[in-house]
């Protein structure tokens, strides 16, 4: 008696349930979502061409090839789970990009508490149209449940062979397993070829050097696509964390040593301002999302920042002062201002390298007899501040629990109450001379103030986030005015170097809003400056040297400049900022790779290609020959790389150890 092979005809239902069909549906859906993400980025000069789609398909194959090696039920479950996870990742990247103009990374996920605390800010970044991103779940989840749990499926293939012999069933299972292994292996090899091949080609042609010198995740995404970008990020994180940790490349170490040797061997320039305010108190206020474009502006006949404008008359106002932040945003501004190194290209140094050695402003001033204190009416663990501030040698961190919550507002305490209570602590608890660093909160995204605190008529912007932003800045300006009066009444104003600067932009990118507000058309240079310029105001104890300074400056310049005023030489410290008082020419480098000096402004393209960027002549505000910015671009690239090397490999600690024998002898 012969046993014939049981057969199953490929009906439309059978074709739909075939593993290859299910796998193909998974690939198509994920590719469509990646394409939708790219469409929603609106990233300048970045396209998703044929090779980019090939990379995306290859990445999907590499993420899912193993599902072929599972039994049919396992394959279905795995593909559904992969769909859920990848959809969540892609959508999270899209929402994160809307606020930060960047992508999620492992270091950012380590800071998940920061994301959780964004609360209302995240809600404003989620659009009703985003529901289409998840519409496939309405079909996939029920379909998967039917396939997995229906009686017909539970009987599975065994019923199809119930009339056969056991020996035949065994052979059939082996044959099925061989087919699964073969299919999975083909998917793996195909995925490697489709993903790695084009990326390798890019890295050897127009994107040469990207993996050695990446300073912005968007440029990496442009080469690798989203999924391979996350794979590369995971690889870098594992490389940094596993084993004894990464070792600095000797060439990078030599470059960093040479850079700081050159700075430290230069003859210091000491003018009449050097040491003029020795022994003065220092108060620095970091204003949340406080931008420069609305300084001196009015709406409906009402000044937006009247107290700041009045204070400008007796202070130095830097009209082209730039924030130099990256993914770490507020913590990056703090890092740049108080440590004078560039923030990281990925994540926050506060979180990633809080145990490394730095020449921080509070530690230097503490060595010179100052009491050092930081004030921020929020959770002490946010951005890992508690740990980082201990390393920076602050005597005390006044955080949320140290303030009476007598006027709750937004994330925590109103800036009005925060300033009042902070000044009271400086007056009664802190020993002079002191350094006090204050971080505000009331003008945080999404800028929603209660009605009783809205004192500005924003006219046609009412009900928009832009209007809410102007409203919140007006409120912070009022709180700043009251703080200055309080310092005067307590006799501290004339004994204090007082600085106020903004930490970063407001994440409102719509150019038409700024054009309507400013009443003029804007070009790319205008928008680049608007989104990167924050105000810096410096009031000296005697009100000297007041006026507007048009030369560029940045957050990294704060520490060297404060030390200059106090008569403390910056020469022996590992800082990268400019001393704005020594009269030397200066360049300001942004984390994106943009840079400016007194004559040129270079805006990099997001595709990472130098020639795709724009070089502007600041005297005319128009584009000039791209080659005019070449030397500045090379210097900016070097500075960012040196800073990243120093931060990542804790080189300041190594440099100090190398210097120790010489100092001891």
TrEMBL record:
<dbReference type="Pfam" id="PF00884">
    <property type="entry name" value="Sulfatase"/>
</dbReference>
<feature type="binding site">
    <location>
        <position position="330"/>
    </location>
    <ligand>
        <name>Mn(2+)</name>
    </ligand>
</feature>
<keyword id="KW-0472">Membrane</keyword>
<protein>
    <submittedName>
        <fullName>Phosphoglycerol transferase MdoB-like AlkP superfamily enzyme</fullName>
    </submittedName>
</protein>
<dbReference type="GO" id="GO:0005886">
    <property type="term" value="C:plasma membrane"/>
</dbReference>
<keyword id="KW-0808">Transferase</keyword>
<dbReference type="InterPro" id="IPR012160">
    <property type="entry name" value="LtaS-like"/>
</dbReference>
<feature type="binding site">
    <location>
        <position position="288"/>
    </location>
    <ligand>
        <name>Mn(2+)</name>
    </ligand>
</feature>
<feature type="binding site">
    <location>
        <position position="503"/>
    </location>
    <ligand>
        <name>Mn(2+)</name>
    </ligand>
</feature>
<comment type="similarity">
    <text>Belongs to the LTA synthase family.</text>
</comment>
<feature type="transmembrane region" description="Helical">
    <location>
        <begin position="131"/>
        <end position="149"/>
    </location>
</feature>
<comment type="pathway">
    <text>Cell wall biogenesis; lipoteichoic acid biosynthesis.</text>
</comment>
<feature type="domain" description="Sulfatase N-terminal">
    <location>
        <begin position="280"/>
        <end position="568"/>
    </location>
</feature>
<keyword id="KW-0812">Transmembrane</keyword>
<dbReference type="InterPro" id="IPR050448">
    <property type="entry name" value="OpgB/LTA_synthase_biosynth"/>
</dbReference>
<dbReference type="GO" id="GO:0016740">
    <property type="term" value="F:transferase activity"/>
</dbReference>
<feature type="transmembrane region" description="Helical">
    <location>
        <begin position="50"/>
        <end position="69"/>
    </location>
</feature>
<feature type="active site">
    <location>
        <position position="330"/>
    </location>
</feature>
<keyword id="KW-1133">Transmembrane helix</keyword>
<dbReference type="InterPro" id="IPR017850">
    <property type="entry name" value="Alkaline_phosphatase_core_sf"/>
</dbReference>
<keyword id="KW-0464">Manganese</keyword>
<keyword id="KW-0479">Metal-binding</keyword>
<feature type="transmembrane region" description="Helical">
    <location>
        <begin position="76"/>
        <end position="97"/>
    </location>
</feature>
<dbReference type="GO" id="GO:0046872">
    <property type="term" value="F:metal ion binding"/>
</dbReference>
<feature type="transmembrane region" description="Helical">
    <location>
        <begin position="20"/>
        <end position="38"/>
    </location>
</feature>
<feature type="transmembrane region" description="Helical">
    <location>
        <begin position="181"/>
        <end position="203"/>
    </location>
</feature>
<dbReference type="InterPro" id="IPR000917">
    <property type="entry name" value="Sulfatase_N"/>
</dbReference>
<feature type="binding site">
    <location>
        <position position="444"/>
    </location>
    <ligand>
        <name>substrate</name>
    </ligand>
</feature>
<keyword id="KW-1003">Cell membrane</keyword>
<feature type="binding site">
    <location>
        <position position="504"/>
    </location>
    <ligand>
        <name>Mn(2+)</name>
    </ligand>
</feature>
């Amino acid at each position: 008696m012969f046993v014939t092979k049981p057969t199953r005809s490929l009906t439309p239902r059978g074709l739909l349930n075939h593993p290859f069909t299910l796998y193909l549906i998974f690939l198509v859906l994920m590719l469509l979502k990646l394409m939708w993400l790219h469409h929603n980025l609106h990233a300048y000069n970045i396209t998703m061409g044929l090779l980019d789609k090939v990379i995306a398909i290859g990445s999907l194959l590499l993420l899912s090839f193993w599902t072929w090696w599972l039994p049919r039920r396992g394959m279905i479950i795995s593909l559904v789970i992969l769909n859920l996870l990848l959809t969540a990742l892609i959508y999270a990247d899209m929402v994160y990009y809307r606020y930060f103009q960047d992508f999620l990374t492992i270091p950012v996920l380590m800071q998940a508490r920061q994301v959780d605390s964004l609360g209302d800010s995240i809600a404003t970044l989620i659009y009703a149209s985003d529901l289409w991103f998840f519409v496939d779940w309405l079909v996939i989840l029920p379909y998967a449940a039917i396939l997995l749990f229906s009686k017909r499926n539970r009987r599975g293939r065994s019923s199809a062979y119930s009339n056969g012999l056991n020996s035949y069933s065994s052979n059939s299972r082996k044959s099925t397993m061989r087919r699964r292994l073969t299919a999975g292996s083909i998917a793996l090899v195909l995925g490697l070829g489709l993903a790695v091949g084009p990326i390798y080609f890019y890295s050897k042609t127009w994107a040469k050097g990207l993996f050695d010198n990446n300073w912005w995740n968007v440029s990496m995404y442009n080469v690798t696509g989203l999924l391979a970008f996350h794979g590369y990020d995971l690889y870098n994180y594992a490389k940094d964390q596993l084993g004894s940790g990464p070792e600095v490349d000797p060439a990078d170490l030599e470059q960093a040593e040479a850079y700081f040797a050159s700075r430290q061997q230069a003859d210091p320039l000491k003018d009449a301002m050097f040491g003029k305010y020795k022994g003065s108190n220092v108060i620095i206020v970091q204003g949340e999302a406080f931008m420069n474009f609305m300084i001196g502006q009015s709406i409906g006949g009402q000044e937006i920042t009247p107290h700041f404008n009045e204070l400008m008359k007796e202070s130095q106002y830097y009209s082209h002062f730039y924030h130099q932040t990256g993914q770490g945003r507020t913590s990056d501004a703090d890092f740049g201002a108080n440590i004078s190194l560039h923030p990281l290209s990925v994540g926050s140094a506060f979180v990633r390298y809080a145990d490394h050695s730095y020449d921080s402003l509070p530690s230097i001033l503490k060595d010179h007899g100052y009491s050092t204190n930081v004030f921020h009416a929020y959770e002490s663990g946010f951005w890992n501040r508690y740990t980082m501030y201990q390393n920076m040698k602050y005597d005390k961190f006044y955080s949320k629990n140290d303030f009476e919550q007598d006027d709750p507002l937004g994330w925590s305490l109103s800036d009005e109450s925060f300033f009042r209570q902070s000044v009271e602590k400086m007056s009664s608890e802190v020993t002079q001379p002191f350094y006090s660093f204050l971080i505000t909160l009331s003008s945080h995204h999404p800028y929603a103030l209660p009605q009783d605190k809205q004192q500005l008529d924003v006219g046609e912007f009412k009900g928009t986030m832009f209007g809410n932003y102007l409203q919140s800045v007006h409120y912070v300006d009022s709180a700043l005015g009251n703080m200055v009066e309080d310092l005067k009444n307590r006799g501290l104003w004339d004994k204090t170097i007082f600085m106020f600067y903004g930490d970063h932009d407001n994440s409102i990118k719509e150019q038409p809003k700024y054009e309507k507000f400013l009443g003029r058309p804007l070009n790319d240079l205008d928008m680049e400056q608007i989104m990167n310029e924050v105000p810096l105001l410096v009031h000296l104890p005697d009100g000297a040297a007041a006026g507007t300074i048009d030369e560029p400056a940045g957050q990294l310049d704060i520490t060297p400049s404060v030390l200059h005023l106090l008569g403390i030489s910056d020469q022996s410290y590992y800082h990268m900022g400019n001393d704005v008082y020594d009269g030397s020419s200066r360049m300001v480098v942004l984390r994106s790779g943009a840079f400016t000096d007194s004559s040129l402004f270079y805006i990099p393209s997001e595709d990472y290609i130098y020639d795709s960027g724009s070089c502007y002549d600041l005297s005319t505000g128009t584009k000039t020959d791209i080659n005019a910015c070449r030397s500045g671009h090379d210097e900016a690239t070097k500075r960012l790389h040196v800073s990243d090397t120093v931060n990542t490999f804790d080189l300041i600690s190594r440099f100090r150890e190398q210097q120790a024998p010489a100092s001891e002898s």
